[in-house]
Amino acid sequence: MSEKLLQILESKRAYRSKLAALPFAEKIALLEKLRQRSLSIRASRENGLGSPR
């Protein structure tokens, strides 16, 4: 594997470990933020503001 790919994979592993170590309440708060972002993206697409798939 290339050095860049190894760096990316290590970064992803570290980020996942960081997320796993968070308290449950913080994980729920992150999920709520993702849900809100997803709803905003969907609304933008439905209103013709986003790029088509």
Task: Walk me through the topology.
Blueprint: H1 3-20, H2 24-46
Short overview:
Helix content is 77%, strand content 0%. It is mainly α.
Task: Explain how this protein is built.
The structure is a single chain. The protein is mainly alpha-helical and 53 residues long. The chain has a domain at 23-53. Helices cover 77% and strands 0% of the residues. The longest helix is centred in the middle third of the chain and has 23 residues, at 24-46. It is flat and about 40 Å long.
Keyword list:
53 residues; mainly alpha; 2 helices; 77% helix; flat
Share of β-strand residues: under 5%
State the helicity in percent bands. Answer: over 70%
Number of helices: 2
Biggest pleated sheet: none
| Termini Cα gap | 32 Å
Residue stretches low in confidence (pLDDT < 50, at least 5 long) are none
Mean pLDDT: 92
Rg from alpha-carbon coordinates: 16 Å
Succession of helices and strands: HH
Overall strand count:
0
Q: What's the shape?
A: flat
Structural class: mainly alpha
